[in-house]
Design brief:
alpha/beta; Rossmann fold; 8 strands; 6-stranded parallel sheet; single chain; two-stranded parallel sheet
């Protein structure tokens, strides 16, 4: 089984766009695929298909109904806040040990040629509960990490900050994936060039807006 934990330098950077494209590509290769978006906030039950988990279900050609949703996203909250705050609004908490165990269980059931995506929530330091963040979650799962970044103004600082934070926790991304932002102020290649100078040796890949099957195939082949 090949699995990845997909995180980002912040919120609404493109984790789901990257994840859904990879899942769709692997399905085209006729590989078994699975995905988890275990924690979601800002969830509208009347718009399942538009949610992050709904997009992953669509990419896997799985039903976007309550059953499918419960399988890949068991902790869902209405408030568009960090998971700990959104859960608290509903008088709940996210059981961290169960979250990790659920991810491990799904990974353990994957066939050898399967591909698994576990999509995080927000950026690398988003709180899960009173004492755990996404950083802890990534460390405890031990999967290769895909760090999604944008090409917007400010992305270089945000990306280097995320890398520095991960290094302090003895983590490093398997790859950084630049998800091209709308209205990028400079060509994406220039952003990648600057990042490569400040993060030598780090694999930095690109996924264009409105990516074609060929674009995604190139990305998948570089992972």
């Amino acid at each position: 089984m090949t699995g990845y934990f997909v995180t980002a330098t912040g919120t609404d950077i493109g984790k789901t766009y990257v994840s859904a494209n990879l899942l769709h590509h692997w399905r085209r290769e006729q590989r078994p695929v699975a995905a988890l978006k275990p924690v979601m906030s800002g969830f509208d039950p009347n718009a399942i298909g538009a949610s992050d988990a709904g997009q992953l279900l669509l990419a896997m050609d799985a039903p976007t109904d309550a059953g499918g949703l419960n399988l890949i996203s068991p902790w869902r909250f209405a408030a568009p806040l960090s998971p700990d705050m959104a859960a608290a609004r509903e008088g709940k908490t996210i059981p961290y040990d169960k979250l990790v165990a659920t991810c491990r269980s799904v990974a353990g059931m994957m066939p050898e040629d399967g591909r698994l995506i576990i999509e995080g929530v927000g950026g690398v330091f988003v709180p899960i509960d009173d004492s755990h963040t996404v950083m802890d979650w990534m460390r405890d799962l031990g999967l290769p990490i895909l760090l999604v970044a944008g090409s917007y103004l400010g992305t270089i600082s945000h990306t280097l900050s995320a890398l520095a934070a991960m290094k302090l926790h003895r983590l490093a991304p398997h790859a950084i994936i630049i998800n091209e932002s709308p209205l990028s102020p400079v060509p994406v290649a220039e952003t990648i060039d600057v990042l490569q100078r400040h993060a030598p040796g780090q694999r930095i890949l690109l996924l264009n807006r409105n990516a074609s099957h060929a674009d995604v195939a190139v990305l998948a082949g570089q992972l």
